[in-house]
Design brief:
The complex is a heterodimer of chains A (about 375) and B (about 675). With about 375 residues, chain A is mainly alpha-helical. Chain A has one domain. Helix content of chain A is about 70%, strand content about 5%. Chain A has 16 helices and three strands. Chain A has a three-stranded antiparallel β-sheet. In chain A, a hairpin with a 4-residue loop joins β2 (about 105-110) and β3 (about 115). In chain A, α3 runs antiparallel to α4 (about 55-70). The two termini of chain A are about 25 Å apart. The mean pLDDT of chain A is about 85. With about 675 residues, chain B is of the alpha+beta class. Chain B folds into three domains: about 10-60; about 65-230, Penicillin-binding protein 2a (Domain 2), CATH 3.90.1310.10; about 265-635 and about 645-680, Beta-lactamase. In chain B, the strands form six sheets. In chain B, strands 2, 3, 4, 5, 10, 17 and 18 form a seven-stranded mixed β-sheet that branches. Chain B has a five-stranded antiparallel β-sheet with strand order 12-11-21-20-19, with helices on both faces. Chain B starts with 9 loop residues before the first helix and ends in a 20-residue tail after the last helix. The chains are: A mainly alpha (about 375), B alpha+beta (about 675).
């Protein structure tokens, strides 16, 4: 394929050309993490595909195909769907507020009859798409410092507040940080960035006392003094640290992690899967997993940087930021550096909802790569 | 970057440039974050790895104590007297039950009696830590155990397991000698504290028992063994998922204790008591081995192993015949006429000619009161041999003060009275051997009477085994053994070996301080009691074992003072007002091997009718168990071919052995005078 052929109008919309443009490197890295996850789930189930590892692989296969298909969807479709998805997510969040199903003290689910849905997951993508679209139409000056910034700020604030009210502090913070990251890469003035960081630092103690729920406060307390309550809230962190630390440099061996095999490690298949990796494969294994995550982030940001349209850049960066935040928050949480907020390790942890969100996100990132030369006009994105 | 011309608006380029710089920063921040995580990983996994490894194995492994199998207690032939038997129990772990009430409902259908104790079970289960198994029922039958196991899948949190429980196969026969084991109580734990030792954690193990009485208590340390440790792998709920064989230490079983007892003799000895209370001791006179030592009535020590119900304990404690009391070594009785051998030896020692005769007229007047012989009409002229044979009180009344109470006491002590013995059981009474010194000390110590002086009148009571004299069955057996042995001051031995180490024999002792001739006179008297047709126990002392004959002495001891003119009242009227019956014997009389001493507390009739036949039955078992004796019995006797009754022991104690009860009961060996025993105010004369 020559460059001249690709410059022919319409050539890039042909399916074989698009397929050739798929980012197999990113897809491969994602698959590596998912396969490591399946292996760990097999191990913590005592060497059994039941109940987690098999499901994990099946789901991943389905979502992998879905990611590839989404990667071929014209970026103009994504652009057009940005506000509708965001709007729908917002409506569902309001619906949850009104008629949501309460499980374990939190109202996060909408019962659709055949399945239950967490609108906050839709919102993770919705916020990326909506902000990317808004900034696509904004000038550099508007993105840096302008009264119009109230619009993206409100777009961000609404879902953050609604999700926090469920209460789901983890997801709420994730949406907030994702939005802030997009606003940052879109070119937000350094003055606002610095002022924002400063005010967060000032407000955080007040949040602790007046906004956080009792159980959330306890988690924060435990972070700073884990030995205070080793059998209660501190148990999770203490056991996770024991699992990681006892793995040592080379690990205890695959399937031989006593902490996870003997159930000392709670939620070993979901939020606390990473300590299992660290226990069974040691520092080497855990470090390599972090390196793969780093490579995924690098590959995705590379895609963001080669896009010719601003929507694509921001969407890819936004998805990457969400993904990186997942990894960093979960890693910090299981190693006792952050409070337990219920954020899983993406693709490694068992759980269909988060995997779907992440894989759709990567579908979007890959679509940005495939359509990186697309020129998107400003204004309503009609095809 | 792009191979194609893009839109060259400055604003668009500024947006792109800013985006690339910021994205680079975003990527850098992510890398920094990942680096921070890696640093933390390194800190935990490399720097603190050792510390967390320890914590991890503390999680993973538990060290569980396994109680050692308690040493067995066996008789001289290796018959198990105290062993361990498997016991099935059901335990409930609260943490693993879905719902305790529901689980107990189901369990109640399998084991109906748990329903009755449901309230206390719930209390116990709730009192224990969540994941600790609490026994709810022990000693399940095999059917119950199987049933619980079959339904195990439907009973989460219920498990059935097997442990070892102490078991006494002979029940009451050895209860007083062996004692029993029980759960450690607060006092056991306090004992460790008092000694300043660390409390052995095995004490808290639910299956562990400590010796409470008898041999179980004395040799508790040796029987106990050393607890083992089991390094088990547990999961987060404390459930055992595996065993670390390399890290486990097997329990060291306790040492076996071999007793000198013979289970057959012991069982027969308890059996012959029937309803009566009392004690009996059988000794091998050659080496002092105690072949039987029983106290009747007895109790089942198995009841005490898992905690005796207070209702049963009350019944045992309140019964007037006191089953819990050891009447062989703890209970003391006046020896009555069985003491007359002692007095006789003292008389010989004082130089009295055994052929010297005293005419018995049925009583003896000393001072201003009359001491009566048991035979109201009197025995006529009596030498020492006849005085023993007929148990003539008058003879001893008459001569005793020529020996003096201190000489009698000295002889009594060298025959074994007034001592406790190192036989490995606590709770022995020394009894009382009165002497002038004893009375002085006793009076001072207790203010029993005002006068600390001994008066010769008191010696008369002591001479016939009454007064303050108090002995136990073991001492009587020791006395009989020493008389029968004739040379050695035989010491009793109850524990043959502990953990294979032999204990010193009772024969390695000094000689008796009596001359052979004197001992022969006394022994011939005892032979005549049993074998002379006019002897007091002739009828009841015939063994029927060929030419093996028994020598013995009857005794009937007052258990209370009879006031002047007081009638004894109808016999059998009130149990605790009757006299005690005693009999001591050894056999064969020509080449002695075994000694038997038997006391019946508050016997219905007296020494010859109640005690002698029982002692004879016990003696027969002892003789028949001895291969030498058996061959002697079974050997056809050449000169008189009428060796009848070679065979087995006629198991007909009771009815058959006391056939003409009417004539028998008229001649009990009444010892004491019907007067107050020895009032000291009448003494000085």
């Amino acid at each position: 394929m020559t460059a001249s052929a690709l410059t022919r109008p319409g050539e890039r919309d042909r399916l074989p050309v698009k397929i050739a443009q798929l980012d197999w490197r990113l897809a491969g890295l994602v698959a590596v993490i998912a396969l490591v996850g399946a292996a760990m789930l097999w191990s913590v189930a005592g060497g059994s595909w039941e109940p987690w590892a098999g499901n994990h692989l099946t789901r991943f296969s389905v979502f992998f195909v879905m990611m590839m298909v989404l990667a071929l969807v014209d970026l103009r479709w994504w652009y057009a769907m940005a506000y509708p998805v965001y709007g729908a997510g917002l409506l569902l969040l309001v619906a949850v507020e009104l008629v949501g199903e309460t499980r374990m003290g939190a109202t996060r689910w909408l019962d659709l009859g055949f399945t239950s849905l967490q609108p906050s997951e839709i919102m993770k993508l919705g916020i990326v798409l909506a902000l990317a679209r808004w900034y696509h139409g904004a000038s550099a000056q508007e993105a840096r410092f302008h009264w119009k910034l109230i619009v993206p700020a409100l777009m961000l604030a609404l879902p953050v507040v609604l999700v926090a009210h469920q209460p789901d502090l983890g997801t709420s913070l994730l949406i907030l940080f994702t939005g802030v990251a997009i606003m940052f890469v879109a070119g937000l003035s350094w003055k606002i960035v610095v002022a924002g960081i400063g005010s967060v630092l000032a407000i955080a103690p007040m949040m602790y006392f007046f906004v956080l729920h009792e159980y959330q406060r306890r988690r924060v307390d435990v972070l700073f003094n884990p030995e205070a309550d080793p059998s209660g809230s501190g148990y999770h962190i203490a056991q996770a640290k024991i699992a990681i630390g006892s793995g040592g440099f080379l690990g205890k061996g695959f399937g031989l992690g006593s902490q996870s095999q003997l159930n000392f490690l709670p939620e070993k298949h979901t939020d606390f899967i990473f300590p299992t990796v660290a226990e069974e494969f040691g520092f080497i294994g855990a470090f390599l997993v972090l390196v793969v995550y780093g490579l995924i982030v690098a590959a995705a940001l590379r895609i963001a940087s080669v896009s010719h349209n601003h929507f694509g850049r921001l969407a890819a960066a936004g998805v990457t930021a969400t993904f990186a935040l997942y990894v960093l928050i979960n890693g910090a949480m299981v190693m006792g550096l952050a409070p337990v907020v219920g954020v899983p390790m993406p693709l490694l942890s068992y759980g269909g909802t988060v995997m779907m969100t992440v894989m759709i996100g990567f579908g979007l990132v890959m679509a940005v790569k495939v359509h990186r030369y697309l020129e998107l006009p400003k204004g309503p994105g009609l095809l | 970057m792009s191979s194609e011309p893009s839109i060259f608006f400055s604003d668009v380029n500024e947006r792109q440039g800013s985006f690339l710089r910021r994205t680079f920063l975003l990527g850098g921040a992510t890398v920094l974050g990942l680096a921070a995580l890696s640093t933390r990983l390194g800190q935990l996994q490399i720097v603190q790895a050792r510390e967390y490894s320890t914590l991890s194995s503390n999680n993973q492994f538990n060290f569980r104590l396994t109680p050692p199998p308690r040493g067995r207690i066996v008789d001289r032939n290796g018959v198990t007297l105290a062993g361990n038997r498997p016991s099935f129990r059901v335990l409930v772990v609260r943490d693993e039950t879905r719902d305790l009430d529901e689980t107990l409902d189901l369990l109640g259908r399998l084991l109906p009696d748990t329903l009755e104790r449901r309230r206390s079970i719930i209390r116990e289960v709730n009192a224990a830590p969540r994941f600790v198994p609490v026994p709810v029922k022990s000693d399940l039958s095999w059917e119950e155990f199987a049933r619980v196991n079959v339904y195990a899948p439907e009973l989460p949190g219920v498990m059935a397991d097997m442990n070892e429980a102490r078991f006494y196969p002979f029940g009451g026969a050895f209860a007083h000698v062996i004692g029993y084991v029980a759960k450690p109580n607060d006092r056991d734990i306090q004992a460790y504290r008092d000694r300043g030792e660390e409390i052995d954690p095995i004490l808290y193990h639910p299956g562990f028992r400590v010796g409470r009485q008898g041999v179980e208590r004395t040799f508790d340390e040796q029987l106990r063994g050393e607890p083992g440790g089991q390094r088990v792998e547990v999961d987060a709920r404390g459930r055992v998922v595996g065993e670390d064989v390399g890290g486990s230490r097997p329990a060291v079983p306790g040492q076996d204790v071999v007793l000198t007892l013979d289970a057959d003799i012991q069982n027969r000895a308890l059996e012959v008591f029937g309803e009566e209370a009392g004690g009996a001791v059988v000794m091998d006179i050659r080496n002092g081995d105690v072949l039987a030592m029983v106290s009747a009535p007895s109790f089942d020590p198995n009841l005490f192993v898992s905690g005796v119900p207070s209702r049963i304990y009350r019944a045992l404690a309140d019964y007037e015949r006191k089953p819990l009391l050891d009447k062989a070594i703890y209970g003391t009785f006046p020896p009555g006429s069985t003491f007359k051998m002692t007095t006789a030896l003292a008389l010989l020692d004082a130089g009295i000619d055994p052929s010297e005769r005293v005419v018995c007229t049925g009583g003896y007047r000393y001072g201003n009161r009359t001491f009566r012989c048991w035979k109201a009409g009197g025995h006529g002229p009596q030498d020492m041999h006849n005085a023993i044979k007929n148990s003539c009180d008058t003879y001893f009344y008459h001569l005793c003060n020529r020996a003096g109470v201190d000489r009698i006491a000295r002889v009594a002590e060298s025959l074994g009275f007034g001592h406790t013995y190192e036989i490995g059981i606590a709770g022995q009474s020394a009894g009382i051997v009165p002497s002038t010194r004893w009375k002085r000390e006793y009076t001072e110590a207790t203010r029993w009477e005002d006068d600390p002086n001994w008066y010769p009148g008191e010696t008369l009571s002591v001479a016939i085994g009454q007064g303050a004299l108090a002995v136990n069955a073991l001492q009587l057996a020791v006395m009989t053994s020493r008389l029968a042995n004739g040379r050695k001051a035989i010491m009793p031995r109850l524990v043959k070996s502990v953990g294979g180490v032999e204990r010193p024999s009772g024969a390695a002792v000094p000689d008796l301080p009596f001359s052979r001739e004197h001992l022969d006179i006394v022994r011939n008297g005892m032979a005549a009691v049993a074998n002379d047709v006019t002897g007091t126990a002739y009828r009841n002392s015939q063994l029927g074992l060929g030419d093996i004959l028994m020598a013995g002495k009857t005794g009937t001891a007052q258990s209370r003072d009879y006031r002047a003119g007081e009638s004894r009242g109808p016999r059998n009227a009130i149990w605790n007002r009757r006299d005690h019956a005693l009999f001591v014997a050894f056999a064969p009389h020509d080449a002695p091997r075994y000694a038997v001493a038997l006391i019946i507390q508050h016997a219905p009739v007296g020494g010859s009718a109640d005690a002698a036949p029982r002692a004879r039955e016990i003696m027969k078992v002892a003789l028949l168990k001895d291969p030498d004796m058996r061959s002697r019995i079974e050997r056809p006797l050449p000169p008189p071919p009428a060796a009848e009754a070679t065979g087995e022991e006629p198991d007909n104690f009771g009815a058959a052995s006391t056939p003409p009860a009417a004539t028998q009961s008229a001649a009990p060996a009444q010892t004491a005078a019907p007067q107050p025993a020895a009032p000291s105010q009448e003494g000085p004369q």
